[in-house]
Amino acid sequence: MIDPTADTKLFRLARRLPDNRLGLGIMHLNNLVAKWGKPPEGLTVETAYIPRPPVAGRGDIRTLVIKPKHATGPLPVIVHFHGGGFAVGTPEQNYGRVARYISAKPAIFVMPDYRLSIKHPFPAGLHDCYEALLWARDVADDIGGRSDQLIVMGESGGGGLVAAVAQMAQDRGEVNIACQFPIYGMFDDRPENFTDCDPANLLWNRGKNLLAWDMYLKGQEVADYAVPARRIDLAGQPPAVGFVGDQDLFLDENIAYFERLTAAGVSTTFKVFQGAYHGVEVIAPHADIAQQIWAYSLQAYADAIENYTAPQPGQ
After folding, report:
1. Whole-number pLDDT of residue 299
2. What pTM was estimated for this model as a whole?
3. DSSP for 204-260?
């Protein structure tokens, strides 16, 4: 059962969104509203435009760079990928989340507005996220950051992109990630690995998940990095931090992925929260379970900054 204090009107409304493109479109419109909101006080927001290499497509990647106004550097650099099942969303939807993290431990957040699968299937969004990571590496000194403390973070579909980017970075050897922070990550496209929860408790359900994976993969054969859970060898991955609720469709795949990381010798920090549905800390931030999640998440984030650095490429 979900935490009764998290059974809010917003949760009940969001749960009723249809499991089709219209439902995803409504989610996207709700997230787009954040573009016209003001960033939290105490933060500066700049916009950078990262050129895509020809192999990755045309145009630039609009990217937010969020910093605390008065912190002294150099600061860790968090490359953050928003959620939305790869299909919808915008970096501005995470203003509140970023403000909480920065208040716990000052850092610079680099947040790409990556291409969405509703128009651009795999690998477009992944390429944008990886290019944002390379850009953060290259400009870290210029923006007041540390290139040896590059952390990749994201929620849901963004958590899946975190895992895929970490795998790609390991294989290409172009950039070293200090820590990966996939939160209730969307790791696995195989329906047999979805968690069998009470449908009444699922904010992101089986129907939406199947649709989102179908849009992302677009009938392609599953290529490297498309589905992080399909990677056989996870040895050598950067340290990983995460959590998931026990009333989340992604429960089993998150447990399995973190167990595999641990078995491969990767340092991991992971917790399952009883009574938590997908995104409860955003949908019902004042709920008892949300407060527990925020306490854990902020402490784990601060600990990751304190404990993890990465050697520079070639070292």
Report:
1. 98
2. 0.96
3. S-HHHHHHHHHHHHTT----TTTSGGG-S--TTPPPEEEEEEEESTTHHHHHHHHHH
Confidence of residue 54 (pLDDT cuts 50, 70, 90): confident
Tokens (6 digits) for 111:
């947040």
Structure tokens at 143: 């923006």
Residue 163: both structure tokens together: 């895992």
Contact 74, 145 (CB under 8 A): yes
Q: Examine the pLDDT at 161 and tell me if it is beyond 80.
A: yes
